[in-house]
Amino acid sequence: MGKLANNVVSMKEIEHDKADPIQFIGGTYSGRGGWFRKSKKERGTEYFYVIVDLGDGFAKKTWTRKTSVSRPLVPNDFSEAIILEYSDVEAKLVDLCSLLARFKLKTADQERLSQIFYFKLGEAMHVYESSKAKKKPYATEFPRDRKKKVVAKKEK
Asked: Is 40 within the bounds of a domain?
């Protein structure tokens, strides 16, 4: 079949170049799956070379920010399932952690931030539960079969 447009190729043509699977949590391909590339690893200090699964047997060879990808995991509990199923939640968590990392926190500071986060989450949950105009809650399916992979779902 050959190369199509903008580095889009048939999935068969890039099988040899697939490395570890990834999930896109930010950027243009947020919510999609893909792979790191075997032939090219990193582009500078902030980017990875990747393959994006476009569906219908096609893929795109491109690069992305390191903060835009996550390795797909099988969740061990409900909290991990939330992060894995909703790429927007994981992306915001990564952004928050990246921002806080600039402060060069010590262990005690990290522990205190965990307490603050726990308190703020509790406050937000209370506000949500007591609100008359509730937004539709997210649905999360936590698989009982540990072999099943959870893939981020992107709502359109």
From this structure: yes
